[in-house]
Structure to design on (158 residues):
């Protein structure tokens, strides 16, 4: 029962790992950077200090991260996915995971997206952190259910 957990920019590595290793049990993404625009916001200021400086990351990584395709990652990950986000996150907007969740729902793939009240990017208040940890633990302890067959997406060939 090995599961994957990615935080922030770690979602960029977690999703392809889950896609290429379907034997993992579950995938949990906490405050995930999803899609090029949201990745670039973590290295450029959007009114708050950027959490990372672009010079801290390899150029090739930034290029690949900026080209992340939500559709490929959403439909290619067969494991149940939990996304936890804070509506008060000033670095990764909570709306960044909406298209990912919608694609999974349309493909009949298990997805749960939870906003933790008053949580910021680091879930820095004790209450937000406790809620986050409890929700992750509950998700990881859920019994494994048979995975539904994904529905074909538009433009996919059989």
């Amino acid at each position: 029962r090995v599961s994957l957990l990615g935080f922030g920019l770690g979602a960029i590595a977690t999703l392809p790992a889950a896609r290429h290793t379907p034997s993992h049990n579950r995938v949990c993404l906490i405050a995930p950077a999803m899609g090029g625009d949201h990745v670039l916001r973590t290295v450029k200021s959007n009114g708050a200090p950027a959490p990372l400086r672009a010079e801290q990351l390899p150029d090739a990584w930034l290029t690949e991260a900026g080209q992340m395709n939500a559709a490929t990652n959403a439909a290619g990950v067969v494991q149940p996915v939990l996304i936890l986000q804070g509506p008060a996150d000033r670095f990764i907007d909570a709306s960044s995971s909406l298209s990912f969740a919608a694609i999974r729902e349309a493909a009949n793939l298990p997805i749960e997206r939870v906003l933790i009240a008053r949580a910021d990017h680091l879930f820095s208040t004790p209450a937000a952190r406790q809620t986050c940890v409890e929700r992750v633990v509950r998700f990881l302890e859920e019994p494994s259910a048979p995975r539904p067959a994904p529905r074909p997406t538009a433009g996919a060939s059989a």
About this structure: The chain is about 35% helix and 10% strand.
